[in-house]
Write a structure and sequence with these properties.
alpha+beta, binds zinc ion, four-stranded mixed beta sheet, 2 domains, OB fold (Dihydrolipoamide Acetyltransferase, E2P)
């Protein structure tokens, strides 16, 4: 009658070792599930649009985080994404070296909040750049399960500038390419510096979008980009010097 036994000493308790079979199922949530279904069945990304603030979110979600209202408007997008940020990884999750470097990026979509972090299929990591247009490469329909791994990777799509309308286009085209590269690398260095861009976020995102599309910046925008570049450089310097004086308090890049 163990239930009636009274144990006066903890040492009197009998015990044995066994295991309890427990299984957990985590759901992706209502909108998360719809996103996965759309990816599996139609190979497209589902987004949600808020009826109040008109923001669109990827992946689809049920509530607008700004307005706290349900977003009933959901639709797939098929526009290309762009590389918002990326890094190159040489080790796997257990810390051992990978056979070849793996490029991972945050892919965002024009006019859509949020994004998808995934592999970037680039033969040469040096060929990846911020703002580069990419499209998902998916598993075949029969192999898709609704997992994020239904996406094999994001692949660069050709972004040949087709904005040459003036005569003597050849010279213009070379010029445009050069400006784009400069602006792109400046934008990259601003983003990499960790400079808090909050108040300039709008500016940065409009520049990013233009640069991503390969559009030429206006003189004003160019000035702005350079000004932000200077700020980011100062920021980087300040972070560096503070990490030299208080090495314990600062996590360096
Ligand atoms: Zn909203």
């Amino acid at each position: 009658m163990p239930i009636l036994e009274k144990l006066a000493q903890p040492g009197q308790a009998r015990h044995w070792t066994d295991s309890i079979p427990l299984e957990y199922h985590y759901t992706a949530g209502v909108a998360g599930e719809e996103f996965r279904r759309e990816l599996r069945d139609n190979g497209r990304f589902l987004v949600s649009k808020c009826s109040k603030c008109k923001s669109t979110y990827i992946p689809a979600r049920m509530y607008c985080p700004d307005c706290f209202i349900e977003m009933k408007d959901q639709f797939p997008i098929d526009k290309p994404g762009y590389v918002y940020s990326f890094t190159c990884v040489n080790r796997n999750r257990s810390g051992s070296d990978t056979d070849s470097p793996v490029t991972v990026g945050l892919v965002k979509f024009e006019g859509v909040k949020g994004g998808i972090i995934h592999l970037l299929a680039a033969e040469d990591p040096d060929s990846v750049s911020i703002g580069m247009k990419v499209a998902p490469s998916l598993k075949n329909l029969g192999e898709r399960t609704g997992a994020i791994t239904d996406i094999l990777a994001f692949k660069p799509i050709s972004t040949v500038p087709s904005k040459i309308t003036v005569e003597g286009g050849r010279a213009e085209r070379q010029n445009v390419g050069k400006v784009d590269d400069q602006a792109r690398s400046l934008l990259h260095s601003i983003e990499e510096s960790g400079y808090p861009v909050e108040e300039d976020e709008m500016t940065i995102s409009s520049l990013r979008s233009k640069i991503g599309k390969g559009e030429l910046l206006t003189r004003e925008e160019d000035k702005l980009l350079r000004r932000l570049g200077d700020k980011a450089r100062e920021w980087r310097k300040a972070v560096k010097s503070s990490s030299e004086t208080e090495p314990g308090d600062t996590l360096s890049g």
